[in-house]
Here is the input.
Amino acid sequence: MENRVENNEEIVIDFGKIYRILSSRILWILGFIVISLIFSYVYTGFMPKKYSTDAKIFINKAEDTNLIEINTFAISDSGGIAGGDSGLSPIIAGLSGGVLANDLEILKSPLVMERVIRENGFKYNAGPKKGEYINANSFINDKNLDINTVKNTKSIRIAFKSTNPTEPYRVVSSIINSYKGVYESINSKKASKDKEFLEKSYISAQKTLNEKIARLKELKSKGATYTTGDIGGTFGLLGMYNKRLGEDLSQVAQGSVEVKKMESDVDQEFDKIKILKKKLEWITLVENMSKNVSNITVLKEPELKESYENVEPNLNFNLSLAFVISIIIGLFMVIALEIFSRKLTYSNMDDKTVVITSNNKDISNLKTNVLINGVKNLSVVSLAANNRAKKFVESLKEELQGVNISFTDEKSSLDGHIKNIMSAESIVYIGQLGYTERKLFNQVRNVCKDLGKKVINNFLFA
Here is the structure.
C-alpha cells in the first residue's frame, strides 16, 4: 500500500515586507498618479462636450382598457355580422397598440424615424450621399440613441446624446410626437376602412330593401291578398268543376304565398338596416376619436439642457478613473521593478533580515542569537558600500567582545567570500538596497545554504 504524505504549507503574508516594498517605490506610484491626473484633465478639456436628455413613456395595452365592453355592435374583420365574435376588437386593438404587436419596434421603425430625421435635418456630411437625409436604420443604430424598455416595468426609455445642447431635447420630443402621429394615422386608416365598408353595406341594404318594397307593392296591386284558407276552401271546390278556374285559383294562391314571403323579407331587411345604421354611427364616433387619440402616457418629460450641463466628458468621473488606473499601473510597475531589478530590493528580505537605517542601528537581535547559540567565530560577508560596512563591523566588534569576527568587503571576490564563510561556524551577511548586485547576494546566500552554515542574521542597509 502506497503511503501518501500531504504537506500543508501555511501561507504567511508579510505585510511589513509589502509595506516596505511599496514605500520604497512610492515615488513611482505618485508619479503615475500625477501624470494620469494631468493627462485626464487635459484630455477632458479637449474632448467635445456631449449633452443628453431622456424621457420615459408608458404605452397602454389592449388589456389595460375596457372600451371593448362599451361596444354592443359587432363588426368582424370580414365585414359581416360577427354576432359578438370579434366586434370592434380590431379597432380597439389598434387604439391600444395591438395592430403592431411590439410597440418598441414601432418606435424604432423607419416609419417613425424617417419623420424624426427630416424634422431635425439629419443629413450625410460627407461621401457620395452628402446632403441626403441619413438612412433610418443608420440612425436607429446610432450609439447616441437609446430606446429600450425599463426593466420590470411597462415603460420605455428614450435617450439621445449630442454635442448640441438643444438637439437631444428636440430629438426625444420628435420621437414621441412622431410615434403619436404614426399611431393615430394607423388607427384613423383602420377606422376609415371599416366605416367605408359599413357605408357600402348600408347603401346596398337600402337598395335591396327598396327593391323588395317595390315588389311587395306590385304584388298587392294585383289583388293577391287572399289567404291560403280562402283559396283552399270555397275557391278550391269551384276549381274541381272548372279546369280554367282551377288554374286561376292556383295562380292566386301562389301570389298570396309570395306576398307573405316578401313581407317577411322586407321585415328582415329593415332590421338589418337598423343594425347597420347603429354600427355606422358607432364607427363614425370611433373614426373621430382616433384622429386625436394616443396610447402614450409620458411619465418623464425630456429636459432642455443648459450649455454647462454636459454629461460627457465627466471631469470627476475621468479623474477618478485615471486615479484608479494609475494606482493599478503603478502597482504592476512596482512588481515589474522588483522582479527585474538587478540591484537588491526589499523583495529579497526573509525572516532573518534586519533593516538598518540611519535612524535604526539596533543589533540587539544579533547579540541575542550569538549568546543563545554560543557563537565564538563569526564571519561577516559585506556586499554593501565600504564606508557603511566598515563602520557597522566596528560597532559589531564593540558590541560582541569575545567573539572572533572575520570580515570580507565588497571588493573581495566570490572566492574570498566563500573562504570566509567556510572558516567560521556562523554567518552574517550584509546587503544594501539599490546598490548590491542581486545576483551576487543570492550566490552568497546559496553558498551558506549549500555548506550548511548557520546564518544568524542578515542585514539590509536602506
Remarks:
- The chain has three domains: 26-45+316-340, 48-223+273-312, 346-461.
- Confidence is low (pLDDT under 50) at residues 1-6, 62-101, 226-247.
- The chain is about 55% helix and 10% strand.
